[in-house]
Amino acid sequence: MKIRNCAGITNPSFLLVHPESLALHCHKFQLILSNKRRSGLFARFRHSASARTFASASVSKPDTVQLHRKHGSSSLYSRPSLVEMKNERIANRAKVYQFLQGLGIIPDELDGLELPVTVEVMRERVDFLRKLGLTIEDINNYPLVLGCSVKKNMIPVLDYLGRLGVRKSTFTEFLRRYPQVLHASVVVDLAPVVKYLQGLDIKPNYIPRVLERYPEVLGFKLEGTMSTSVAYLVGIGVARREIGGVLTRYPEILGMRVGRVIKPFVEYLEGLGIPRLAVARLIEKRPHILGFELQERVKPNVESLLEFEVRKETLPSIIAQYPEIIGIDLKPKLLGQQNLLWSLIGLSAEDFGSVVEKMPLVVSLSNSPMIKHVDFLKDCGFSLQQVREMVVGCPHVLALNLDIMKLSFDYFQTEMQRPLEDLVAFPAFFTYGLESTIKPRHKMVAKKGFKCSLSWLLNCSDEKFKERMRYDTIEMEEMETMPSFDMNSLMEPRGDESDSEYEEDSDDDEQV
């Protein structure tokens, strides 16, 4: 059987079939049918298979060739497998770990961190950190810093800090305290915090000093602890215009939790008898007192004062005069000063308590100046008993400028010509200015012909003294008592001047 004409076939795929090719397949089909050992079903299956083979060979072959060409161009089987890539990464990490261990760096905390694939890149990071002044110990304290790229992380952050005005000489300590800054984004993390600080009235030229003193602030959330601590301080009476100065001098406040730190501290001082507004004024002047540990330091110090014969009702005055007294290591100082004054002038424990009440700063005075002042009073002719009375009456005689005391005493002897007993009765004489107060008042009293005590002469305001100069005689009921600290003076309305200018806080333990 031969097919001469294919015009009757309408399937487009068969238009490519050659007549001889079709005749050949039909001939094979006849041979299969002639084989009596084959079943009819098998013959039909072979016919169907033959037709599919024929169509596949005729139509699909070009696509198959094209597919093989695409596979060949992608080089699929020339790439390493996932297992091989994983093993390579493990091997590279092992080399990096070996390099770090050779430097003394413990890489245990780096297991979950993406690290450079080569030792050379890791060496670059370590060398850069060491050039900044960080030691191997510093890196071991925060090994995650090794996950920071020199070009993408470290240099942009340090350049930004430098543009703000942070001194390069402080970079080492800055990074020791807050190495996490190297992970930060300048635009997303750092710049918004700086803008927020400026919004708290911290002057732009003070921002670098704030960051140098408290670099951890760069990691705080804007609407978290920082905003609540500021709002609380304003709420208790800290003047809004003083906030910038308070935070400039003690930026650690921005990291303090109100409920756990600031509020308990304020309420404890209130419980001792210091009015809340007075506490606010103390914070304005000495903001670092908020850093005193309440349980570990403040409360034990108050108990120590009571142990050394200080009366409970005088605690508010003591703290208001010298807030540092509740933040220093107080008990050894109390014991040391008590023993010194006992050895110098025989001061009793009760009298020592009185001295602390009148001049809390006595707990921080150096031994040498105190000895010199006692020797000076003795050289002036005062007996040991009189020196003791003068110290108890006005402890400031142990801390005043010795040269000025000498000038005042010379004037007392040569011009005023008063007996030493007058100074024993009013040792505060040494606390008044010679040129501004003592000389002019003495001349006016001498001109009037008055005979008065040193207390009546000095222990009053200029307005009150002018009023007294209009008297014909001195009334005994106007005799003034020894000057003392007035808590109300701490809560008087503030003037236009502000304490917000930046200044480095001196050591808490003031030495005179």
Automatic annotation (TrEMBL):
UniProt similarity note? Belongs to the mTERF family.
Protein location: Plastid, Chloroplast
UniProt KW keywords = Chloroplast, Plastid, Transcription, Transcription regulation, Transcription termination, Transit peptide
Tell me yes or no: is Magnesium among this UniProt entry's keywords: no
Tell me what this protein is called. Answer: Transcription termination factor MTERF4, chloroplastic
Looking at the UniProt record for this protein, which Gene Ontology cellular component terms does it annotate, in alphabetical order?
chloroplast
**Main location, first listed in the record:** plastid
Going by the entry's taxonomy, the superkingdom of the source organism is recorded as Eukaryota
Q: Give coiled-coil spans as residue ranges.
A: none
PANTHER family with a match to the protein in the record: CGI-12 PROTEIN-RELATED, TRANSCRIPTION TERMINATION FACTOR MTERF4, CHLOROPLASTIC
For the region Disordered, what residue ranges are annotated? 482-512
Return the Pfam families for the record: mTERF
Biased composition, Acidic residues: where in the chain?
498-512
Question: One GO molecular function term?
Answer: nucleic acid binding
What processes in GO biological process is this protein linked to? developmental process; DNA-templated transcription termination; RNA splicing
